């Protein structure tokens, strides 16, 4: 009963887009599940499901690295169960694998993300049309929290096979995007930059229309690809795109309370603009570098971590004194005003 209650509370928080609260409940539930498993009250399927839910909550909040870790733990248990003949868990194992692929894409581990996507596609194709779990999933028509964007509802109840085929198409499309990036060469960078500009424009449209969460997820997935390209084909333009992607991810994530994604975005922007200004001597990136620091501190402040925010502010001040010494008082005032506003909204 305790586990069921906690899972219900977690679902309520997720439905309200209270991502941090949902994550805290999922982590508490996981601790309880592990305790019950150790005492023989619950079994391996409960353990796999618990890690699966934790992975989803971490990804929703924006902790993609930690989400990938939980998804791998869940998948390991599912694979052990499948090897023992628990074939009724095949669909849950596939869902966990798509969660892992999504998390890996967000952190820029595109090779591994493509591999996991290929395995998920093969597993979907091997599911029989009459699979019981497919029929149940089709009836529930539950939205996936793993970054797979659903198609519009037709008003008709899909069969299990139709539900599977729809997800199969979505995962296949994502794999095609991953392969396009992985197969890139230096001559493809101009097209990539144009595409990512379009993604930024689309995200801005979504946010302006009142959908910052969708904009945040779009930029997070996009940002992983940009980060991969920046490592593979280093240059000022792609590094600038990486920093801009991070800054926009931070801004939109703040609007929808995806605290982990907000911090990751601004931290990425700080790193990229530091490279451009400090290592590559591009002075025009001094202000974006300092602005990214303020965003990072704001993300910490929004989550109630005033001590962490102050540490970031101290680091920003040192940078300002090195690259804009005459403007240091301005940056101090600007930082104080923004953080005060964030604290007032936080309550």
Key attributes of the depicted protein:
single chain, 347 residues, mainly alpha, Serine Threonine Protein Phosphatase 5, Tetratricopeptide repeat, 2 domains
Would you kindly provide a written description of the structure presented here, covering whatever features stand out?
By secondary structure, the protein is mainly α. The chain folds into two domains: 172 residues, Tetratricopeptide repeat domain (Serine Threonine Protein Phosphatase 5, Tetratricopeptide repeat, Alpha Horseshoe); 161 residues, Serine Threonine Protein Phosphatase 5, Tetratricopeptide repeat (Alpha Horseshoe), CATH 1.25.40. The chain is built from 15 helices and no strands. The protein is globular and about 70 Å long. About 4% of the residues have low confidence.
Write a short abstract of this structure.
The chain is mostly helical and 347 residues long. The chain contains 15 helices and no strands.
């Amino acid at each position: 009963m305790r586990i069921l209650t906690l899972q219900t509370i977690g679902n309520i928080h997720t439905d309200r887009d209270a991502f941090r609260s949902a994550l805290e409940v999922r982590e508490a539930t996981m601790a309880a599940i592990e305790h019950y498993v150790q005492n023989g009250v619950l079994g391996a399927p409960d353990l796999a499901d618990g890690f699966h839910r934790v992975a989803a909550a971490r990804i929703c909040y924006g902790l993609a690295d930690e989400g990938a870790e939980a998804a791998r733990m869940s998948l390991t248990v599912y694979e052990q169960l499948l090897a023992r003949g628990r074939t009724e868990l095949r669909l849950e194992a596939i869902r966990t694998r798509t969660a892992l692929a999504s998390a890996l894409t967000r952190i820029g581990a595109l090779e591994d993300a493509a591999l996991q996507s290929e395995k998920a596609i093969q597993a979907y194709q091997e599911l029989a049309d009459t699979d019981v779990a497919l029929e149940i999933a089709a009836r529930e028509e539950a939205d996936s929290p793993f970054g797979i964007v659903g198609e519009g509802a037709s008003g008709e109840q899909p069969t299990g096979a139709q539900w599977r085929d729809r997800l199969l198409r979505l995962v296949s499309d994502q794999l095609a995007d991953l392969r396009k990036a992985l197969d890139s060469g230096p001559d493809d960078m101009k097209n990539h930059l144009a595409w990512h500009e379009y993604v930024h424009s689309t995200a801005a449209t979504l946010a302006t229309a009142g959908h910052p969460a969708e904009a945040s997820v779009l930029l997070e997935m996009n940002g992983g690809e940009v980060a991969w390209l920046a490592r593979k084909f280093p240059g000022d333009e792609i590094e600038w795109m990486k920093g801009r992607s991070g800054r926009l991810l931070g801004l939109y994530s703040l609007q929808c309370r995806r605290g982990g994604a907000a911090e990751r975005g601004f931290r990425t922007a700080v790193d990229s603009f530091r490279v451009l200004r400090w290592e590559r001597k591009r002075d025009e990136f001094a202000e974006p570098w300092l602005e990214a620091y303020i965003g990072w501190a704001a993300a910490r402040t929004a989550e109630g971590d005033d001590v962490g925010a102050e540490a970031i502010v101290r680091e920003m001040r040192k940078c300002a004194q090195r690259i804009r010494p005459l403007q240091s008082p301005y940056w101090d005032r600007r930082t104080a005003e923004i953080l005060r506003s964030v604290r007032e909204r936080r309550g």
